[in-house]
Amino acid sequence: MRKPVSLALVEDAQVGDFVIVHVGFAIGRVDADEAERTLALFAEMAAQDAAAAATAP
Amino acid sequence: MAGKKDYQRPIDFKHGRIDMNHGAGGRVGAQLVDELFARAFDNDWLRQGNDAALLEVPDGHRLVMSTDGHVISPLFFPGGDIGGLSVHGTVNDVAMLGARPLYLAASFILEEGLPLADLQRIVESMAAASREAGVPVVTGDTKVVERGKGDGVFISTTGVGVVPQGRRIGGALARPGDAVLLSGTIGEHGVAVLSQRESLAFETAIVSDTAALHGLVAAMLEAVSEGAVRTLRDPTRGGLATTLNEIARQSGVGMELDEAAIPVLPQVEAACELLGLDPLYIANEGKLVAVVAAEAAGALLAVMRAHPLGRQAACIGRVQDDAHRFVQMRTRFGGRRIVDWLAGEALPRIC
Amino acid sequence: MKYVDEYRDGEVARRIAARIATELQPGRRYHFMEFCGGHTHAIARYGIGELLPPQLRMIHGPGCPVCVLPIGRIDQAIGLALQHRAIVCTYGDTMRVPASESLSLMRAKARGGDIRMVYSAADALKVARENPGREVVFFAIGFETTTPPTAVVIRQAQAEGLRNFSVLCCHVLTPSAITHILESAEVRQYGTVPIDGFVGPAHVSIVIGSGPYEHFAEEYRKPVVIAGFEPLDVMQAVLMLVRQVNEGRAEVENEFARAVTREGNLAAQRLVAEVFELRERFEWRGLGEVPYSALKIRPAFAEFDAERRFGLVYQGVPDHKQCECGAILRGVKRPTDCKLFGTVCTPENPMGSCMVSSEGACAAHYTYGRFKDAAVVAG
To answer: What are phi and psi for residue C300, nearest 5 degrees?
Structure first.
């Protein structure tokens, strides 16, 4: 779906960027690298967990 | 009704508007009924020209009756209009008791100033819906109110149908252990209508799911033994959550739902996400909920999925014992929450 | 949905919950306060409380702007509609908040007030353009997230030379709310509300950055972890807080790195500074008067200030005697501690604002969690 939102607060946003929208205004960009890093952090924890389970008595 | 040759000139549907004369009970009003309503709905009963219709009721059956007022605004929305909606809505209410809908009555409250082009479009849409459903509009009425006293048009439809003796389907019959089935994806009608509201201004490909469900209901009831289907209800205003809470309350039971099993179109999810709405509370006009005996669920789902209006039918939960009559849900996230009644109008969240 | 679904993965949630459980120190209780409406809502809607170990409690702080909006301000908005016959534009949740004389904005609408729900401040500007013969007032509430949009529309109104538009400014500031909680008797002196750390708000932090929280970490020795508003963000932030507490650290960490930087959105901050200035004092519902905690419109934009334009006077109105919203907002009491909860006070008939907004602690508990108070027999 499409909805017009204002870019007045994130003027350097480019087409293709992901933004966080609040009450009809984009208030910030989503840093794709950071997003991936956060998800990787979750995955790492899952791995740690698996490793811990493997070594548990 | 006077014969056609008494009228001086045919109605100008392109440019004309409803005015107070149309409601005065005189020739102008009669011409509108003749040239628009009677012509569009055309059937033996209307041709008799009486104020009421004489109906046949098959032996061994009992009558089911339902009525609905339609005040939707805007009158036209993606996927439908108030006319089609008024036919589907009442046909569905009758079908939800397991009845075969037979006849419809329709009453129109027209606002002074309503463009005749709009009225014609609405009435023709109603007539098409009625024909497609096989349920004729056998009697009707029109009135006119002054400008400002109506939202263009209000339509009230009453439907009459029949159930065979011995059939009992109703909201108070759900039992612990029963399966809760849903015929398809939720939230489309409400989102389609909201997209027409200026204050929310968004474009979407979502269309209303408005449809007559009596064919699906008939197929379902034929597939299982009498009594296996306890409750049927269409989740209209207030959405799926409201309907399930109503049934829980009427039957004095609780429910546990599985969020992951509830089908929602990704576009509807996205629209709700952006607007701060919950699909569980949004109106549907072409879906039904069925509470059924657990052992019948498999057969029913197969029959539903084979029907064009039930392709995405799913089992979304179970009925359980609960003195508090809570409808609970296991979230996709692994947590648990209750799915409560709606308090007042659904308002989008801001924060 | 990209960048949304991945943050709602139930399997990962379970793993994080398991990890939290293993890292809790035995015999120790943990209390973390979140003061972001979005977090209260996420915790309730996804049932996160169920996933966290019982020794860990989440306290809902005053993060819901509708909940801290005092009755007197809603009375002002209602007065603008009913007495001054202005078109009043407001965000949805404000419509049902109970005000004086058994009124609310929704009831005032039923009485003939022209009150319109808008999704955005920009919509209110549109109403003003389309109704040049009527006064149009935007009821501006919210923390630092909604403030920049209001600043944008005021500047736009000035640029367009609109003569019929004004704003009733009730914007409040997050750091002030936190200070107030930390300075409250229950926390500082009595220690009856142990708060071990804070989950920093998501959207607010995008605007103000993570910098402003460093003061709290240092001054009050409490860790702060800024979290995104998806459920996994919240869980991850809780884990990070547990670790800080265990290790005796009191730092500001940023879980929401994909959207929050240390400085925040400077363009938005500049716009806000241009249009608004600090009020010396402002009444918060449940917290009383809090100094330097809210904003008013600068003299340069006086013609867009509804308070000046209509000569409004603020009249404080006390809450229902038995309403515990104040204590609940400060984390001192729980919804179930309030005598009115679930009986007289329900979402259909809210006595106080904690019940009206779906992010209010009482509404969230009532709507999503009250099954936990009752004994449910599974069939």
So the answer is: -60, -25
